[in-house]
Structures are given as structure tokens and as C-alpha cells.
Specification:
The protein is an all-alpha fold. It contains 5 helices and no strands.
Length: about 130
């Protein structure tokens, strides 16, 4: 497995624990807002798709993983938009910054999945470069 995919797998495991924790809090006490609940489910599902794709190594799962990362980015962006009305509070500001960092990571992970080492891992041909 390429080093970049090992890093992506490790970071995705940490993110799965965080978003899974949000879901556990919701189901235990129902103290989480609806958009947090929905974005946590989308994030957990998308990150699990990426994890499965990393181990299945097929071109179809490569496309599914890239699409799932895109969907998670969109959903977390909507989550940030829902938080903007309370931006003056310090915990909300920290949440917006944290989610922004996660979105930047996911965009980078999605881009890495199209890099040459990852494409070889998924049994895809190398991309042609145009000059």
C-alpha cells in the first residue's frame, strides 16, 4: 500500500471515531442538532466507503470513494453554513475552523486518490499528461 493511502486510512479512522462519537451522543441523549446528525451520518458513510475502497482496490470503488469524499465535503460545508448564525460564540468558531480543516483534508485526500501511486493501487492506468 502506498504511504499516502496509509496516511489517509489513519486520518480517516480518527475522523470515523469523531463523527461516530457525534452519532453516539445523539442516540444516547438526543442533544445534537439535526444538521450535526445528518452530516455525521454522511461523513461516517463516506469515510467507510473510502476505507472499503482502499481494501477492495477496484476501479469502481475508486470512483465511489472519490464521489463519497465529494459528498462529505458538500455536507460539511452545509454544516458550516448552519453554524454561521452563532459564529460569535467561541465553541462555534472552533467548530467552524475544525470543520474547515477537515474539508481541506478531504479535498486533498480526494486529489491524492487521482495521483499516480493511488491509481496504480486501484489498478487504474496512469493519467496522460498534456503539454
Amino acid at each position: 500500500m502506498p504511504r499516502g493511502l496509509k496516511i489517509i486510512t489513519g486520518v480517516n479512522l480518527v475522523l470515523l471515531l469523531i463523527f461516530g462519537g457525534n452519532l453516539a451522543v445523539f442516540y444516547a441523549s438526543e442533544a445534537v442538532r439535526t444538521y450535526v446528525f445528518v452530516s455525521s451520518w454522511v461523513a461516517v458513510t463516506g469515510l467507510l466507503v473510502v476505507m472499503v475502497a482502499t481494501f477492495v482496490r477496484s476501479p469502481l470503488w475508486h470512483r465511489l470513494a472519490r464521489g463519497a469524499l465529494y459528498a462529505v465535503c458538500l455536507c460539511l460545508g452545509v454544516h458550516i453554513m448552519g453554524m454561521l448564525s452563532e459564529l460569535g460564540k467561541l465553541p462555534i468558531l472552533a467548530g467552524v475552523l475544525g470543520l474547515s480543516a477537515v474539508i481541506f483534508y478531504l479535498i486533498g485526500a480526494r486529489g491524492y486518490l487521482n495521483a499516480a501511486p493511488a491509481r496504480l493501487w486501484f489498478n487504474l492506468p496512469a493519467q496522460r499528461t498534456t503539454n
